[in-house]
Amino acid sequence: MKNNTDINFFCDLNEKVKKLISFLISFEGRLSAISFVMLLLFIKSFIQPLDYLTNSMFLSYIANLCSLYFMLALIQKRCRDFGSSGTYWILAFSIAFIGDMAFSFCNVQEAEDLLRHIYFVMVCIQLIVFICLLLIPSKANVDERIRSPLLKHPLIYTLICIILAIGATIGVNYYNGVNIL
């Protein structure tokens, strides 16, 4: 009997993992503030250890770029929860994300003052977006079809942001005297 229980546990776990993955890649639905924070930490918990385990900035950079799609999905769902299309929140996060990624291969402590200030502003914008999305209260009756025009085609928008982030990374490092190509 115990063996049958173990099989049911793994079948249920398999279904729950499938539901979580489909929820993370979907731009449909709503997301409460607490769920937003928990899923944000869940996504970041897979990316941060890459810095320490692989000691490869390139692998960490690629993982951060890939996480953009999931982050945009979370932001869209959270904005829908309080009745907003989220266009401004998505735009602010995207600009800050691209700016943050631009400094990935750059030693910020040794960079010029201008670059350090820009990096600081990008990190602050991301924090402000996440804190605001956490603090805005949910609404009971909202249109479930609300969607930002930026995310009409989320994969295309994500690819555009990734291309801009790679270009910004090359530009910032060139400005700082580092050739990463």
Task: Provide a descriptive summary of the structure in words.
The chain has 181 residues and is mostly helical. The protein is 72% helix and 0% strand. It is built from 6 helices and no strands. The chain has helices at 2-25, 33-53, 57-81, 87-102, 113-135, 154-175. The longest helix is centred in the middle third of the chain and has 25 residues, at 57-81. It is globular, with a radius of gyration of 19 Å.
Number of strands: 0
User: Percent helix among the residues?
Assistant: over 70%
Query: Which whole number gives the mean pLDDT?
Result: 82
Structural category: mainly alpha
Low-confidence stretches: none
> What is the molecular shape?
globular
Q: What is the H/E string? A: HHHHHH
Summarize the structure.
It contains six helices and no strands. It is mostly helical.
Identify the notable features of this structure and list them briefly:
mainly alpha; 6 helices; globular
Topology:
Layout: H1 2-25, H2 33-53, H3 57-81, H4 87-102, H5 113-135, H6 154-175
Helix pairs in contact: 2-3, 2-5, 3-4, 3-6, 4-5, 4-6
